[in-house]
Amino acid sequence: MSPIELVEILRQESPEFLGKVPDKRAALIIRAALARLAQEIRTCNEGVVKVQALGNFRIRNIEKVQDGQKAVLKNVMFNAAKPGIKKSA
């Protein structure tokens, strides 16, 4: 899914959410946020990167023997957040 596709979905589901922000600008904001998230995951050696409403990225280093040499590989697992429960009025 591309950032512009996300913008289109947001416009359809909640037109007032983005207001008068042009689609290209909104897509740029989404792209920048995703790039920052990717950078955070890349720079984290081990641990958890938590993203509210999206889920957790668990990062581990795994030692593996490749071609007779020990190599350290980064393993990133994603666990999606559980959907929020809406309270009825």
What is this structure, in a nutshell?
The chain is an alpha+beta fold and 89 residues long. The protein has three helices and three strands, in the order H-H-H-E-E-E.
Walk me through what this model shows.
The chain has 89 residues and is α+β, with helices and mostly antiparallel strands. It folds into 2 domains: 1-43; 45-80, no CATH class. The protein has 3 helices and 3 strands, in the order αααβββ. The chain has helices at 3-13, 15-18, 23-43; strands at residues 47-51, 55-66, 69-80. The chain has a 3-stranded antiparallel β-sheet with strand order 1-2-3, with no helix packed on it. Strand 2 and strand 3 form a beta hairpin. The model has no long low-confidence stretch (mean pLDDT 91).
SSE layout:
Blueprint: H1 3-13, H2 15-18, H3 23-43, E1 47-51, E2 55-66, E3 69-80
Antiparallel strand pairs: 1-2, 2-3
Specify the helix fraction band: 40-55%
The beta-strand count equals 3
Strand order of the main beta sheet, please?
1-2-3
**Structural class assignment:** alpha+beta
